């Protein structure tokens, strides 16, 4: 047994997928974004669950992640690599018809020459630079890639044309994102007039699906919403106020639980843990939990975190260590070693949402999730 467990709730996932589907047209493909070990949920566990919900299109960051998805995906599925392809994976990608973003000529040329040797076709999504200035073809390069594609039609299939927004989750970026949409539209027109008509035009991440529901084109690449979390607090407030509802339509999929390793009494006037960040102003009963920043429980939760033990909330005291942290349980006289400790998730009456980590520590929910230790076993709950 490991010293904590991550639970993946199947009905919450179904709830969220239904919610996402309610936001997009029937004709729009839902690509499930499972980069970052499926936002910490585990690629190996999530793919079968998603496929049961008829989600069969998966977007990953790297060829490494693509291989993980490939290992567990069944029947008809599509894998799309949005970012890095390691040189050693090029053959595997071509042999298995893995789709990928192309954002520079050198990658395209390299994959093309491999495809020619193998007498196979590569399936590409041309990424357009629209203003994020991360990856993507600048306008002045469009004609070059079009010529290269049109000269090698037997070896290159342009399946998609795509872009990514630089922060659709915040109104701060409204003007910039609007300009990106305009640029993307221009690119689509340009490619079409040069005989490149991709099946899948796509640009929307979770925030864009919420903010620009009429601009999804043929496919959406949705990550965070699937897992039951919002791209930002602002996007949540905006959504519920637009619909005039007060309940959260999403359900968090992930819970994280550990247990009490030790309990001890600390006399009044002593410092607790490393350094002097926590002073016991009274005699204090301290419980240790075998979880620390080494497992993704951020050090910035020092003296700030909360946990639930036996349906009561307790405070983290002192600094978070690599492998453990301490909880003040003075107010309880029933807690015992091995009692369950909820780090993220809910008990009968209480809830510790992942978003509370973010409020306290200035971390994104994306960041908290993707840093949770990959070795922690993930179990599926109904
Ligand atoms: C991560 C990512 C997404 C998904 O973002 P969410 O906000 O989690 O929906 C979509 N497209 C690209 C290119 C990404 O990197």
From TrEMBL:
Keywords: Isomerase, Pyridoxal phosphate
Sites where the protein binds substrate: 134, 322
Classification via InterPro entries: Ala_racemase, Ala_racemase/Decarboxylase_C, Ala_racemase_C, Ala_racemase_N, PLP-binding_barrel
Family matches, as Pfam families: Ala_racemase_C, Ala_racemase_N
Molecular function terms, GO-annotated: alanine racemase activity; pyridoxal phosphate binding
Gene Ontology CC terms, in alphabetical order: cytosol
BP-aspect Gene Ontology terms: D-alanine biosynthetic process
Domain Alanine racemase C-terminal: 253-381
CDD domains the UniProt entry points to: PLPDE_III_AR
Family annotation (NCBIfam families): alr
The protein, known as: Alanine racemase
Annotated organism of origin: Lutibacter maritimus
Phylogenetic placement of the source organism: Bacteria, Pseudomonadati, Bacteroidota, Flavobacteriia, Flavobacteriales
């Amino acid at each position: 047994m490991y010293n904590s467990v991550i639970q993946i709730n199947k009905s919450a996932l179904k709830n969220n997928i239904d919610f996402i589907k309610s936001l997009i047209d029937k004709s729009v493909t839902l690509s499930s974004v499972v980069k970052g070990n499926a936002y910490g949920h585990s690629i190996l566990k999530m793919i079968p669950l998603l496929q049961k919900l008829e989600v069969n299109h998966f977007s990953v960051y790297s060829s490494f992640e693509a291989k993980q998805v490939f290992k567990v995906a069944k029947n008809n599925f599509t894998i799309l690599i949005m970012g890095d392809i390691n040189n050693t994976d090029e053959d595997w990608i071509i042999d298995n018809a893995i789709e990928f973003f192309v954002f520079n000529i050198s990658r395209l040329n390299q994959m093309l020459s491999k495809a020619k040797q193998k007498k196979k076709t590569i399936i590409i999504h041309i990424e357009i630079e629209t203003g994020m200035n991360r990856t993507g073809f600048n306008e002045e390069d469009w004609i070059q890639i079009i010529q290269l594609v049109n000269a090698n039609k037997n070896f290159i299939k342009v399946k998609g044309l795509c872009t990514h927004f630089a922060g659709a989750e915040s109104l701060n970026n409204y003007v910039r994102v609007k300009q990106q949409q305009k640029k993307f539209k221009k690119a689509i027109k340009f490619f079409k007039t040069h005989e490149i008509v991709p099946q899948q035009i796509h640009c929307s991440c979770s925030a864009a699906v919420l903010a620009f529901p009429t601009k999804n084109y043929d496919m959406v690449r949705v990550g965070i919403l699937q897992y039951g979390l919002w791209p930002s607090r602002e996007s949540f407030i905006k959504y519920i106020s637009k619909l005039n509802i007060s309940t959260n339509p999403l359900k968090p999929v992930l819970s994280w639980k550990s247990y009490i390793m030790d309990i001890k009494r600390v006399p009044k006037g002593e410092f607790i843990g490393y350094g002097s960040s926590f002073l016991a102003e009274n005699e204090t009963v301290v419980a240790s939990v075998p979880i620390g920043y080494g497992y993704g429980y951020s050090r910035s939760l020092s003296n700030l975190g909360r946990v639930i033990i036996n349906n009561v909330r307790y405070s983290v005291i002192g600094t978070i260590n690599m492998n453990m942290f301490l909880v003040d349980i003075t107010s309880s006289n029933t807690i015992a070693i091995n009692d369950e400790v909820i780090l993220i998730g809910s008990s009968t009456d209480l809830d510790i949402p992942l978003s509370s980590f973010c409020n306290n520590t200035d971390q994104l929910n994306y960041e908290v999730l993707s840093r949770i230790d990959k070795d922690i076993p993930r179990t599926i709950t109904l």
